[in-house]
Amino acid sequence: MKLWQKSISAWSEVETFTVGRDREMDLYLAPYDIMGSLAHIEMLCSIGLLEPEEYTALAAALKQLYQDAIAGRFVIEEGVEDVHSQVEMLLTSMLGDMGKKIHSGRSRNDQVLVDLRLFLRAEIEALSDQIGELFDILQALSEKHKDILLPGYTHLQVAMVSSFGLWLGAYAESLVDDLRQFQSAYQIINQNPLGSAAGYGSSFPLNRRMTTELLGFADLNYNVVHAQMGRGKTELFLAFALAGLGHTLGKLSMDVVLYLNQNFAFLTFPDQLTTGSSIMPHKKNPDVFELLRAKSTQLAALPQQVSLLTGNLPSGYHRDFQLLKEVIFPAIETAKSCLGMLCFALPQMQPKTNILDDDKYKYLYSVEVVNKLALEGVPFRDAYRQVGHDIENDTFNPDRTLNHTHEGSIGNLCTAEIRQKWERVWNGFEFEGVHEKVSALVTQKN
To answer: How far apart are CA 362 and CA 131, in angstroms?
Structure first.
């Protein structure tokens, strides 16, 4: 079944090529397509394009299909082109010609636009929940291990004293920036394109503000051409957020791979988190973190893929957009799996204590000595040369006492302040209001 089919059918080769993976990808969208149809038919009834009894019957049927979809029972049958066609076919089989009326005032173009917006909005919330879980773990580990010192590096050369608390806390705060990017994408996505039809509006007296309210969108895409142009750009904004998250997770994973190396040996994980070699019985390979690193790189490449797919297209709908689902949907699953694995693995980390007792790390304290001399009144450049001279002559024997007190330093991690920053960003999403609207729309009334 095809919503666009007339008297002439496309050749099977054309159908196979153009449908591609749509049936597979559209299963992600099924609950959201039904949700969009529920809002649309309520609006159609309000403007007289559906009789009240037709609306009541259609709404009841759609709510049952919604329950099937969220329970995993919804199937796009062989020969049915996409989720929109499947829903309309099921309604028509249940209610007769009444089922055909749900398409009045909309196109598959704005149907897929609203489906994607609703789906991506929900996926951003799910990702944000997982990012929040990882943030909590990193903050807890940062406080737990804040007194265990760690070498800090620049140019991969021993540089200054750090700590496990400082290292882990840095990634917690980095996730706040990542969450801010997801919030920005969420605000762009959380606008209603429904009613833009094929991208040029409709002669029906549609009430687009009503569907905006019913679906819990924060605002409308007012200009109907702009609404259609959001396809591709919406995915690009989300791709940048996913890439930013990938940057954080990849760098953290790379640090772990380094710190597990025997030449560093700063931390260990249970043997069950490592893998072995087929010929070297001593090996304990950090495959989990290497794959996390690689998957994070895939996320980092996402904006390039989305931009190349859509960046050279003029305004209006193009079938090229179909391939975006095949790029974005797996990327979201990749991000979720990476977050889930880190939340599982990191609490099992065992930092090594007394790392800096090794004499090879004594130069980490050179800046500490320079600063101490400066505090005693020695001009900084003179203090720098004096310490440098001691290092060159192998007479450098530093006091290893530390006194870092400023915000965000070893002795003052500002864990509570970073959490406050997180909460300010989190509260900007206002997920609860969306939940209330969606629940009211899809719940069967007795």
So the answer is: 37
Residue 151: its H or E element: strand 149-154
**CB atoms < 10 A from the CB of 148, how many?**
18
Residues 438 and 35: their CA atoms lie apart, in Å, by 8
Q: Which structure tokens are listed for 171? A: 């990634």
- Assign 428 to helix, strand or coil: coil
Same domain, 251 and 114: yes
Q: Please report, for the domain that includes residue 254, its CATH number.
A: 1.20.200.10
Largest CA distance in the chain: 94
Which residue is listed with tokens 């953290």?
A: 252
Which range marks the domain in which residue 72 is found? 12-104
Q: What is the mean pLDDT of each run of 10 residues along the chain (446 residues)?
A: 54 65 83 97 97 96 96 89 90 94 93 96 98 98 97 94 97 98 97 95 96 97 95 95 98 96 92 78 85 96 94 88 92 97 96 94 92 93 94 91 91 96 95 95 79
**DSSP string covering 8-53:** SPPPHHHHHHHHTTHHHHHTTTHHHHHHHHHHHHHHHHHTTSS-HH
Write the DSSP assignment of 371-422 as a string of letters. Answer: HHHHHTT--HHHHHHHHHHHHHTT-----------STTBTTB--HHHHHHHH
